[in-house]
Amino acid sequence: MNQEAACRSIETTIKSLGRATIDSPVSGSTIFVEDHERVVIDTSLGFFKRCMETGSEPVSFELAGPRRKIYFDPSKTKCAIVTCGGLCPGINDVIRSLVLELHYAYRVENIYGVPYGLQGFIPSYGHALVELTPDAVEHIHELGGTVLGSSRGSQDIGEIVDALERLNMNIVFFIGGDGTLKAASSVAREALERGYRCAVIAIPKTIDNDIAFVSKTFGFDTAVEEARKVITCAHAEAKGAPNGIGLVKLMGRDSGFIAANAALASRDVNFVLVPEEDFDLEGPRGFLCALEKRIRTRGHAVVVVAEGAGQKFFTDMPEEKDASGNVRKHDIGVYLKERIERYFQEVALPVNLKYIDPSYTIRSVTANASDSIFCGFLAQMAVHAGMCGKTDMLIGLWNNVYVHIPTEICMQGRKKIDVGGPLWMSVREATGQPVMVNEG
Amino acid sequence: MNQEAACRSIETTIKSLGRATIDSPVSGSTIFVEDHERVVIDTSLGFFKRCMETGSEPVSFELAGPRRKIYFDPSKTKCAIVTCGGLCPGINDVIRSLVLELHYAYRVENIYGVPYGLQGFIPSYGHALVELTPDAVEHIHELGGTVLGSSRGSQDIGEIVDALERLNMNIVFFIGGDGTLKAASSVAREALERGYRCAVIAIPKTIDNDIAFVSKTFGFDTAVEEARKVITCAHAEAKGAPNGIGLVKLMGRDSGFIAANAALASRDVNFVLVPEEDFDLEGPRGFLCALEKRIRTRGHAVVVVAEGAGQKFFTDMPEEKDASGNVRKHDIGVYLKERIERYFQEVALPVNLKYIDPSYTIRSVTANASDSIFCGFLAQMAVHAGMCGKTDMLIGLWNNVYVHIPTEICMQGRKKIDVGGPLWMSVREATGQPVMVNEG
Amino acid sequence: MNQEAACRSIETTIKSLGRATIDSPVSGSTIFVEDHERVVIDTSLGFFKRCMETGSEPVSFELAGPRRKIYFDPSKTKCAIVTCGGLCPGINDVIRSLVLELHYAYRVENIYGVPYGLQGFIPSYGHALVELTPDAVEHIHELGGTVLGSSRGSQDIGEIVDALERLNMNIVFFIGGDGTLKAASSVAREALERGYRCAVIAIPKTIDNDIAFVSKTFGFDTAVEEARKVITCAHAEAKGAPNGIGLVKLMGRDSGFIAANAALASRDVNFVLVPEEDFDLEGPRGFLCALEKRIRTRGHAVVVVAEGAGQKFFTDMPEEKDASGNVRKHDIGVYLKERIERYFQEVALPVNLKYIDPSYTIRSVTANASDSIFCGFLAQMAVHAGMCGKTDMLIGLWNNVYVHIPTEICMQGRKKIDVGGPLWMSVREATGQPVMVNEG
Amino acid sequence: MNQEAACRSIETTIKSLGRATIDSPVSGSTIFVEDHERVVIDTSLGFFKRCMETGSEPVSFELAGPRRKIYFDPSKTKCAIVTCGGLCPGINDVIRSLVLELHYAYRVENIYGVPYGLQGFIPSYGHALVELTPDAVEHIHELGGTVLGSSRGSQDIGEIVDALERLNMNIVFFIGGDGTLKAASSVAREALERGYRCAVIAIPKTIDNDIAFVSKTFGFDTAVEEARKVITCAHAEAKGAPNGIGLVKLMGRDSGFIAANAALASRDVNFVLVPEEDFDLEGPRGFLCALEKRIRTRGHAVVVVAEGAGQKFFTDMPEEKDASGNVRKHDIGVYLKERIERYFQEVALPVNLKYIDPSYTIRSVTANASDSIFCGFLAQMAVHAGMCGKTDMLIGLWNNVYVHIPTEICMQGRKKIDVGGPLWMSVREATGQPVMVNEG
Q: Which terminal Cβ of chain C has fewer Cβ within 10 Å, N or C?
């Protein structure tokens, strides 16, 4: 609930290119949404009561959905779609639904794919735009990855806006993680400053599911499903050798949601190490001791570690950044592997450690049914928002409702596992793992 | 949002066996939940404002979760678990998590499975109770179905309570659909009247996902995933023959959620027929005409029908009930198959219709990762509720939060697809299907 | 081994359009096969010795593979592909590999798909040929079914050959079951008689795996994999209800290979009924009695029945044929369901029978890896055979080697389960089922 | 066919503990196999003719299957099962079927699992034997890995035989790769020399499918299926980034069968590097140049490398051995990754390489249906062989027939891909890869 607490003072008004005056071509049987329809962010009764006492209106998000009046004239609207950052199950589902919704619901005919992420806007890379039609996207949801290609790293915002203006784009859909949200927001603001009417709508993509104010990001469910399969393999490996240890590194740079959920889904995991909870390796209450105890009593163990866990062990080492400007995490998986092997050599207990780092095979599969449906809705809502001239916003799911969120507020921090909350409690129960810090 | 509207006057207080005075043995690092923590049911800002204006407190649900004080002394607590009605992915996950939570979190040692549903309580059936230990349930989540067995149909409430009293059961977990919720509620009330302290906690199970005030029921995601596979097959069959028609009947007695979601996940469906939307077969705007048009223009079609759709075609036929007392639906799948074949004979357009009725193979698979995690939480929350002496309630998920819901209010009606809302709009867009009534 | 016995006197010479004189364009590093390379059909040492004693050469098949000299000039060659009969996993893999092999290995540029089976040849149906290029087939193996469409039923051979001549086709690939093999053979002979140089190469397709002299047909492995999943569901259903019976009807018109193999793969089946083994329903040694015994002792049962089993129960009923001229089997699944239910009513033992008939969802999936590879080889071998002017033959796999088989000898009977052999012995052991005939 | 050539002078007589005189308890309807029933190894007609000319009997294998007379008295027979070496899909299927066949077909009641491979025989390790009953093994085929545990490395043969004698074991089933076959053979011979009547039957296990005179080993099909999935991911990664390269290392220490078959099954691979075909990295015809050409023309590439490929690049480095005494291969995957990255830096063409090493997740899954059935037959045949007193042999599949093979002849070399044969030709065609050596 601390997220809701944090949000009590945030600004949630959505920017707009101007008044929407054109009748929506969306089928008449649709129930249109009005801009004043909003949902309260914090749904606890206590918060409600406090608001009543103080007479203050609670912070709320604008509802997503089709509006009766739109801003752009569909027959003259030109749209671009760009996918950035690492792969994630469902990107092609989003692309496909954007195209179909624009084409069939709004009769927009000019839709272009920008190849290879933000690079695709920059002339010097020489990537040609891809025309996107319903035929071109018909089967793309059956493929993993992104048919547009992606790339990491930022590009000059001015150059991006120049490119968009030159192409006369009216709506740009950015699909990407925080670097991309930041770029999208800068693009939106730069365009507004220039007086160039371009709606910038983002659909947040992070397999780690760690975007603030977004209950769930697409691809996460599928990733957990795949991670569960890998853990089942690690368990077979662990049981298949004397003192077998299966060590699995899962995605999760700042938040351990995949690790925690995969452990719950699998029920074969004995230790889950995540960025949110501190742990020591050495010492009587440290992880290595706990692992030794497990091995001595049960003869095997499965350990799941999120890539961002235990970064404190690398504080002496120099910080590196990847092409997207993300701080590159030191490889906790390889580090743990070595530390475990060394430790058991020292205590003269021969173990068989199998290290599995499955990231690419988790993130590049096709979306499962649930994510596929979810992607469809995100895309539709994004199209509705873009067509009525909203900008500098993203589509999020909040308490089961699709909402418009100003891009800015999602960049104020990341969603993290609350280590006192029910998710982490369940992980503790399912694994039986102790708190592994020597003091505190 | 109409559901929320309906609930503004409902009673959401949970019955209790008495004051909880024993310290919870649940690990100290847990963040306990207080009974006064509640979430507002209707989260729209407009509703909030109206409450503020009138000074009325909004209707809210009690939060689920561990309480600092519990009612039953774990060392003397005896629990029973019973599974009723049709199979649904995840039942074994729920059973397993109930047992593990009772055993490891609360140190309850006496846990029994009641075989074959409500029959298992009735002496004349002669089914012996099954002892449930962590070892016994370790691998059951890898199996579909229910290891306890199930049965349909009601049993005498007095006899059930007699059996529970004789066995000295303190908490009974009912896993089942509306018939079961009704029985559970009657058992709870009968026990209260007799002064017999028995907590009755229900975990709603319906593959149709149609329980009022419950955002999602377990097994639904998995069912949609399986249904998608079947539709892919139907599509291959439809395209594989001249004028091929793939007709798939999916579950959904009163609500078409599985049909609608599977259609969205698959993207190959041309017609979805559900109980919530009226349709005619004959006539210029009827389904058969629309299907003919599709076949003549595209050469193939995929039709998905929920089992409860089109019941108006059977009004002349006598009503039948199954063992659970549910009104037995006339088989719309077989009926449509015959009507389609006859129609195309009459219009002299030879078609190849392949009819697929996959129900048993959808509901008896193991839960996917998402459902498996979900089942774990439902079970944990149910144990927390039971241990602190709540009764006549069920565990529900409302706006992403686990809550306590009085059994009664879930029986006041079913959740249905809002045919003006975004789900059905998306289905219309994805299928391109018209409204198929001749008048109105 | 009785098949080998049967074949000692068969004619296995392959017909040819004429002398192959053109140098093959296939890459020089290839090891070419000579026409005199053959493999002996019966590989038993005893047979070998008898041949030595009598000085007789054993019957053998010509090896498939690329020949150094080919008959058709690739730059002028025109090919057609037609797919007939019911769906089977892998058809699209075969089509794809035919096209790629013709295009890349032989540089053939004119390749056409004939739509909807033999209908596609007949002008009155008005189906247009489909041009097949590497691009057009690139992703088709990711789809179940056949992209060309299929149909059942025979067409006039003269009309087919007229169509081929008119189109100037040089090689025609028929993918289909026995009706199709028969048609292909007639087409080949008619063309030869007319002096029209057209190579007719068949790739046998039968999900039942029952073609004589062919060790395995494509799609069979995949079908067994799918059937295993269905049986797992039937098992969950059977265990999930008091006296639960899961009854699964699987494909197998004349041979029970899918039923037998799926039962072995699943290990949850208690009775397998196939066309090859007689069984009674009534009587002290009949199936119903055996099933009752199982239910009374174990409380549940899984029964698998091949569609062609127990046809003796229908002898009084009139014979029907489907569009392909196959005798239409009476529905043993529905019949058994009714007989079982009636029987248990009579003996007053209430059972819960769940009947599953999954055929369409088994045959329309994509090929598994093993079948996909297999389809690739069949297609390549077919192209090699066609290009060097062989005709009236099919590509078969015999003792792990790809061979040329005269179409005719495969039509002399079907491959059947040897009820004294190891496959059926294993089924008996795995199920524990008795011989279920009252006399004999 | 070179394997058959190699075998013309091999000794294929099976050793025996003595005359089998006890009537088999196997059900009377079984068709028993006689020892003189054999199948010819080389089935080519040419070979047959040469034998006829010279009057020499061709080399043949003894048929596996139940014998009318057995050697051991079932009521007094004690059996052990041991699993050695790395995991492979299907081990638990084999264990399960051995137990069920011994128990149900022969009524053997004393069956023990030896834990953790050959270690389990050696007292100093202190591993206790596991009793194996039908109940204990009922569900083990639903788990990957081996329920008995495994280990690498040899143990003292004398100590193993001591242990067996002490335990009075009559039949020992060894499931393992070449190290294990060698150990099994030594155990068998040592026991014979001591006059201790112990039948030693091996079931060859190698996921690489490279055992001489064995057409296929269990688990291979499943491994190829899993490898195909990984390649699909690598393809998505490659297409998802500018100049993306997906590099997948697959199992295959001495033979590239998994790599070759997975490439054929996937159809997305551009280069397959295997131990059987030499390739250079540098130079105008080397791999790096070919890869550059592919990247420049198509913008992405998928490379599959078998772990034993390219070992010539490591000749300067010292040889290492693993615990089983296998020469440890230098990691060609990591090496290639570095070389590729360095090369493209040098030619100033920025690429995005994603390296995937999935081994553990391929080998630890459960067996697919086809492998599961196969494992069942291997186990049954092994039991038949052991019960009639055969020893120092393994069960193999040769040309579709189960046979008895003296352990020794399988250790004379490995099965390898014939780079002039149809498998490799197909890989070349499917990938379009050139011969990548600069000279020769």
A: C
- Cα torsion C391, C393, C395, C397: sign: negative
In B93-230, the DSSP E strands lie at 110-114, 130-131, 171-176, 199-204
* pLDDT tens for chain D, residues 1 to 440: 345 455 556 889 999 999 999 999 997 677 899 999 999 999 999 999 998 888 888 999 999 999 999 999 999 999 999 999 999 999 999 999 999 999 999 999 999 999 999 999 999 999 999 999 999 999 999 999 999 999 998 999 999 999 999 999 999 999 999 899 999 999 999 999 999 999 999 999 999 998 888 889 999 999 999 999 999 999 999 999 999 999 999 999 999 999 999 999 998 999 999 999 999 999 999 999 999 999 999 999 999 999 999 999 998 777 777 666 677 768 999 999 999 999 999 999 999 999 999 989 999 999 999 999 999 999 999 999 999 999 999 999 998 899 999 999 888 788 999 998 899 999 998 999 999 998 76
Spatial CA neighbour of C299 closest among C349, C247, C259: C349
Exposed/middle/buried for residue C19 (C-beta within 10 Å: 0-12, 13-18, 19+): exposed
Provide ipTM, 2 decimals: 0.94
Burial label, B346 (beta-carbon count in 10 A; 0-12, 13-18, 19+): exposed
Nearest-10 Cα torsion for C114, C119, C125, C128:
0
How many of the other CB atoms lie within 10 Å of CB of A118? Answer: 30
| Residues of B in Cβ contact (< 8 Å) with C145 | 235-237, 239-240
SS3 at position A132: coil
Determine which helix (DSSP H) or strand (DSSP E) holds D235, and give its type and residue range.
Answer: helix D220-239
- C259 CB contacts (<8 Å, ≥6 apart)? C227, C250, C252, C272, C273, C274, C304, C305, C306, C309
Q: For B299-368, where are the alpha helices, taking DSSP H only?
A: 332-346, 359-363
Tokens found for residue A338: 């070595």
**Amino acid at the residue A299:** G
B230 in contact with C, Cβ within 8 Å: yes
Q: Which domains does chain C have, with CATH numbers?
A: 2-217+366-410 (3.40.50.450), 221-364+419-431 (3.40.50.460)
What is the pTM (predicted TM-score) of this model? Answer: 0.95
Q: Just list the catalytic residues of C.
A: 208
Residue C104 neighbours by CB distance under 10 Å: 15
Could you tell me which of D363, C374, B432, C165 has the C-alpha nearest to residue A236?
A: D363
Ordered DSSP codes for C201-242: EEEE--TT--BTT-S--TTHHHHHHHHHHHHHHHHHHHHTST
SS3 C433: coil
Q: Dihedral of the CA atoms D111, D116, D118, D119 (nearest 10)?
A: -120
Q: In the 8-state DSSP scheme, what is residue A78? A: E
Helix pair A369-387, A220-239: axis angle to 10 deg: 160
Q: Is C176 in contact with C184 (CB distance < 8 Å)?
A: yes
Cα(A313)–Cα(A331) distance, integer angstroms: 10
CA-based nearest residue to C424, from C304, C274, C279, C311: C274
Question: Can you tell me whether residue A350 is helix, strand or coil?
Answer: coil
Q: Judge: B360–C356 Cβ closer than 8 Å, yes or no.
A: yes
Neighbouring C-beta atoms of residue B319, cutoff 10 Å: 10
β-bridge partners, C209: none
Contact assignment for A43 to B45 by CB distance below 8 Å: no
Outline where DSSP puts E strands in D149-299.
171-176, 199-204, 244-250, 271-273
Residue C126 is which amino acid? Answer: G
Nearest CA to C79 out of C115, C128, C112 is that of C112
Confirm or reject contact between C308 and chain B (CB < 8 A): no
Task: Tell me if A364 and D233 make a contact (CB, 8 A cut-off).
Answer: yes
Chain B residue with CA closest to C364: the answer is B233
